[in-house]
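Schema walk-through. Below, the input block comes first and the output block second. Nothing else is stored per chain. Lengths vary across the set, and this one has 634 residues.
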Amino acid sequence: MSRQTLNPFGKNRAEQMGEDSWRYYVSPEENLLSEQPLIFEGSRGTGKTMFLLCNSWREKFSEFNFENDKIKRLFSKENFVGIYYKVDGRFVGNNLKGKGVEDEKWVSIFNTYFNIVVSKEIYEFISNCLLQNIINHSDLNNLNSRVAKKIGLEGGSDIEKIFEKFEEILDSVEEFSNDPEQSLPKLLSSGTLIKTIVEFTRKIEIFKESRFHMLIDEYEELNENQQIQLNTLIKQSVYWLVYDVCVKTNGIYSFNTISGNEIIQEPHDFKHHKPELKDYDNSSRYLEFLKRICQKRLEEFVPKETKEYCTWINIENYLKRHSEAEILSVYKKSPNYKKEVLDVLRELVNHDESSKEIEPKEIERVLFNDSPLIERMHIALLRRKDINVKVLYEAIIKEKKEYFDWKHNTLFPTHFLLCNELGLEYQYHGLKVFAQLSSGVIRYFIEICKSAFDSAIENGFYFSNPRSFSLKEQTNAAQFVSETKVAQIDGFVPGGKVLKRLILNLGKIYYLRQTNKHTTLGEPEVNHFTTSLFELKTYHSDATKYLEFAIMHNILQPSLPTKTKSNDIVEVADFHINHIYCPFFKISHRRKRKINIEPSVLNKLILGNSEEVNKIIKKYEELNDTQISQGKLF
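--- output ---
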């Protein structure tokens, strides 16, 4: 296949990028890896593995060699050496527990295993430094002697024998895990061998100012006892030996340490980076971050000789925000436009007594302004009890502030009313919209970009002659990815089938609210809910469990807990469906209005039978705008 027809967004996982992941890497924030440990918590696709891999010594060596740079700059006190370890969930976790062996012994086995696998990677780094002639074998004498004694190696302490001993210990650990009747290997305490190796490595002249970061990926694969061991290492980090972990949302099972009376806590013991919470508002910083990620990919595909090269390595010029006039022209071409908009607006005007005080030509000129969007908004406003034709007319011609407020609050959600009534698809387009759909998950954004490029390539797009993507190409991309994501939910473990049912129920409620023909747009764009966590946890433990699964899988995204304004202090929280699902449900992707769902009602939406669920959905469909914003509804 010609490079012209390849897709720059075809790879969206760090594991697919080979040894040169650094080519595609953009740091999410400056100085995340510092003398203070980091916990990077996020769902699949938030860039956790990419972040750790691209800060590891292997990727840095590859990057510096490619740039013909001096690797030695990694060893300055301003920089660091990253030692990457990805937790093997098949071997640790539940594999190293039970089987008739007491927990304390399994903890020792895990500590030994962890010491050895990380120490192996540190020695891989040292071996590579030997190959690069950064250090000499004689520089390692003291280090090797100390390590040999620590691991019980007799008969020499050269680097090859140390590697052999590492493998021997790992084999013993595996044999014991498969058959606890086997003899135990030499056991090591939490992180002691790692600390010894780093300490003695820093006695070598070139490494005397070096900071070493142990980069632990997929921390959630560890069981609680194993996490407690690593928590202790996080707590005991020093400026020259720092432990950093990446973990899936809700994948931290304990903040305890082995001392029994100490925990690790933010901000004293670690920095906590949660990109989905930080980027939910799609700040300019997040948009620039996405643009830099895309630029690195596009630079490899857009020919340097392309006219306006700098324009076409900017993703914003492909994901063009099309004009309102272009969208309105689509609405006006609909066969339903006259019946659903013009006729309905005329009927409301004709049945309003106040309209008789105004010249018909004036009503036609002011209220019927050749914009389906404005006309549909006028219909919603005239359905409010406190607005009649005269009030609306005067607000427009006198340019009253309240009319501009109405437009500001209701014009965007009017699109969803119109699309439903005209039998059209809402047009999802533009960089900012795609960023909002991604809900802070980089992989989702890249997948939408891939789908948009796929669609354009099918329509004859070439990088030698780039162009902006059409409304249809962008909308199709958003819908395709959204439908794919919804289809994947029931395969999630644990709880997939129940969670898919919950999301389908919520999506239906939001859709019915956003497309209700009789809405006054008093509470537009309902797309999240609030509930009492305290009550849910107290009376509905099973529903609470599934809510936690939904957060872990990034199906629901919680906002920070707040307190009610009443005298009863009850913990409550808002929950958004991940906005990647919005095109599937044909609802707004903006974070605007919410409904209150009582814990007992939420319990039925999660675990109730079809009859109970249908009754709830029907009640929400029948609620008016005032009731939506009130407290208890059932």
